[in-house]
Amino acid sequence: MAETDTATEAVGERADTEKSPQAVEEAAREANAKGAPRPGQRAEVTNLDIVRHYFQIAADQLELPDDLRTVFWEPYREVTVQIPVKLSDGKIHVYSGYRIQHNGARGPYKGGIRFHPEVNIDEVRALASLMTWKTAIAGVPYGGAKGGVNCPADKLEPGEVQRIARSFMDKIEKVLGPTRDIPAPDVNTNAQVMAWMMDEYGKLHGHTPAIVTGKPISLEGSYGREAATGRGCVYMFREAAPHLGMTPADTSFVVQGFGNVGSWAARIMQQLGCKLVAVSDANGAIRNDEGIDANALQEFISGGGRMTDYEGADAIEPEDLLAVPCDVFIPAALGGMIHEGNADGMQCRVLIEGANSPTTPAADEILGEKGVYVIPDVMANAGGVVCSYFEWVQNLQHFRWDEREVNDKLGNIMRRAYREVSARAKQENIPLRQASYLVGIERVVEAARTRGYV
Ligand code: NAD
Q1: Whose CA is nearest to atom 4 of ligand 1?
Q2: Is 188 in the pocket of ligand 1 (CB under 6 A)?
Q3: Are the C-beta atoms of residues 392 and 244 closer than 8 Å to each other?
Q4: Ligand 1 nearest atom to the CA of residue 42, by list position
Q5: What is the pTM of this model?
Q6: Which one of 187, 264, 267, 324 would you pick to mutate in the ligand 1 pocket, going by the greatest count of ligand atoms within 8 A of its CB?
Q7: Would the CB of 185 count as within 6 Å of ligand 1?
Q8: Contact (CB, 8 A) for 336 and 49
Q9: What is the Cα–Cα distance from 110 to 121, expressed in whole angstroms?
Q10: What are the pLDDT digits (tens) for 208-248?
Q11: In this predicted model, what pLDDT tens digit does every residue of 275-303 receive, in sequence order?
């Protein structure tokens, strides 16, 4: 859409898989029929099934004809590359890297890069599509994209991760650019990885800070970017709380996944006066009904401590985390963690989706029946991309805003998104998730129509 085709030589061929919504729903039903996953497991349905399900419901409601459905569901461009890297065991390991540009009607493509062994092309497709709706809901002038490499980054040495990041950039740079596609961090990538990627791009194109966001402060990163996704989740809580009769002082919360998003959400919720009562990461889960100090825990974990060795709480089974009674539950790990095998046991009033696609459609239905107020990923975790937009704007102007200015602007955008979506939800008497997708899809369709693309 916004893109020309000058870079098509880098475009990989996509496997010819059956992708009709009906086929996927059927596969999901079949998977579910084989038995629900246990509480601590990820669901059998994929992230792509999850996003497609919600897209279909909104498309039905908008009475989007089949041809337009295909345009707005299918990605615009998919790049698949091979990344061979010699690791410290002396062997060459071959990883697969993906960059998927889903829709660019509203502006340059934007989306994070994930390093995780479970990364696959369908997961990246799902996450790219989510970004399209997310940027539209937040009202920032971007399209949606996502990238990933299926490497076990958390088990690799920094030098090895650096080689993968640089090699990935070398292979996808033809479809990137500050007015084309701007990556950012996601699971297992961070400001350091963005610095390496910017440096690699600079070798070919000259110093170009606006090529990636989420960079370190010392390399034209934005104040507030690192905390932005977690902070955005807290803005959601602040907007919803008065309508639900909740006050921070009376609010207990649980966080699943104590990484970038989860640890910042926890620290900022705590600053507001809320109490963290249980938390987990990939190494385990802990609980203390009297409260866990999120700042002390962050220091402990970043100093190399294991979650279950933290002294201020008791270790619990990760699968018991979801059933811990609390007012707010914040999933901030991977997709598909809340599914039909554990949703019924959840004891929260509000679910704020920091992670992407944490809730399967079956679980979403169960939570709806239980009266849990779900603030969906496409809106709740938009703080990261909003602040990435601020970073990009600052880079293009070679100008820097202070942290207060960044946080104030972030608050304005997150509040506006919440108010617009919740007004739509009330008007149509539908859940926030459905209203978010309606708002997002409508804006993208309108942009594509106005351009004359459809
Ligand atoms: P991260 O790598 O910093 O943190 C992920 C955390 O999840 C880690 O603490 C990890 O130990 C934990 N984890 C992994 N498997 C787990 C499991 N089975 N149970 C419990 N915890 C587990 O990643 P992040 O950037 O914080 O991203 C987390 C989620 O938020 C992802 O879904 C990501 O797509 C989404 N997200 C991130 C951003 C961002 O700005 N970083 C923006 C929007 C959405």
Answers
A1: 259
A2: yes
A3: no
A4: 18
A5: 0.90
A6: 187
A7: yes
A8: no
A9: 17
A10: 999 999 999 999 999 999 999 999 999 999 999 999 999 99
A11: 999 999 999 999 999 999 999 999 999 99
